[in-house]
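Example (one chain per record):
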Amino acid sequence: MSHCIVLCVSSEELIAGQAQELRRGTVVLACLALLDEPQYGYALLETLNNADIAVDGNTLYPLLRRLEKQGLLDSEWNTDESRPRKFYRISDAGTEARAELIREWNALVASMARLTKETP
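Predicted structure:
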């Protein structure tokens, strides 16, 4: 008879959790990549999810506010429609940060390809 004293996690759950950790760091770069044109949060959320970058609103909206506080995004309210929406757009500082993050990303992909002996 097998007893589990610690939380038992299936290998599928373990892999899913690790994959989520890998993706989590990509959301910032993905947002910066998509916000050359102003978008409101829900549209950005749909675009990310359609690109297979799984993120939910409870993660995205605080992230957008943090990036704005850091000066990487600018925002403005659109009150032309019945429901006001906050639109986000990458700032000049965000454009510079995005370029550096893309360089870092490409270097990381190349390093991982060498370590795993896979072609990127």
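Caption: The longest helix spans residues 92-116.
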